[in-house]
Amino acid sequence: MYHVATMAVQIQRYIRPFEEAKENMLDRARRGTFDHTEYDIVAGVFDRLTSLDKDAWAAEFEKAGRPFEEKAKAEEAKGDTTAAGQDYLRAYAYYRMGRYPTINSPGKKAVYEKSVQCYLKAAQWFDPPLEKAEIPFKGRTGEGDKIIAYWRRPQKAGRVPVLVGWGGIDGYKEDRRPEAYLNSGIAVLSIDNAGVGQAPVKGLNDADRMFDAVFDWVQARDDVDPKRMGIMGMSTGGYWAAKLAHTRRERLVCSVNHGGCAHYTFTPEWIEKAQHGEYAYELAETLAFAFIGGHAGFDDWVEQCPKLSLITQDVLDQPCAPLLCVNGTKDSIFTIQDMYLLMEHGDPKWGFFPPVGHMGNTPRTAGVVHEWVCKQMGV
Predict the structure, then answer these.
(1) What are the pLDDT digits (tens) for 276-312?
(2) CA distance readout (Å), 47 to 23, 24, 39, 40, 263
(3) Residues 222 and 119 in one domain
(4) Same domain, 149 and 55
(5) Cys-Cys link to 242, which of 232, 257, 292, 307 (CB 3.0-4.6 A)?
(6) Model-level pTM greater than 0.85?
(7) Does 90 fall in a domain?
(8) Residue that finishes a domain, picked among 125, 145, 174
């Protein structure tokens, strides 16, 4: 442990030991958090690991995924596309765990690329089909020139409503699960949250620009209703869903902030407390990677993150599009006080706050969100 001095507050640094991080990840695996994986295989990987070394972590999960990728290739060659699709998804899932929580080392970047490749191999048989879109983006020096997105549209005539969705700091566009919305006649565009995956910009660099380019692309299509575009940000991505609901309100029919942060999360007191929370390990470092860059670490996050406060930015007292806020009251990653703050400022909003941890996941939660979005979109 060591102390970081910031804004006249001493933060006691806590680095989670490997054994604690291992048990956290195994608990998630037991609960089915990692789609398309088997607990025994995940447990076997952790039995072979002895530390949180990034490249060793990536290498062991790459070994776990490789047999499924090889099996999928053989099945595809034989024309068994059903089996091939399932095994490509299994390979993607273990490679995904290999890049967890973020792609901040050579090994994690390499296994992330394999996860994307296997996901897209499986996606060639999705119904409705998945289209990989390259959305033009006028990035600054050092930024990208396109936004990679996954477009899926219900196979029906006419203009349909559309939901643009993204994850947080460790859930990427490959991890979105849009089936309920597609089945309800809503098109879905999945993108990476600012600063992660294939996103062209980091979050601290006024990443609103990235979302503007996405919205322009969606609303220019002739197969969607541009007046019925909604957004949904998951976990850290909820930060952007809340902000854009205010700053881009005229473009949106609705917005869902599912588990996001807004102000108190960026204070030294919460940063210190969250180190001991439900995030597996390196929460501040993973946030720093997404918002600041690959070079950034704990100290950088403590110094820079107060700039992100939606109170400091004078956002929350602006009018906003219909906004649903969802999280658990016992969240130890992003304080529930951030959700209450959103409810206390500006226009009236909707809220669902069950007495559980991060994201507020209960047997009811997904249905509550889905029903609300459908109602706002008129489907």
Answers:
(1) 999 999 999 999 999 999 889 999 999 999 999 999 9
(2) 11, 14, 12, 10, 39
(3) no
(4) no
(5) 257
(6) yes
(7) yes
(8) 125
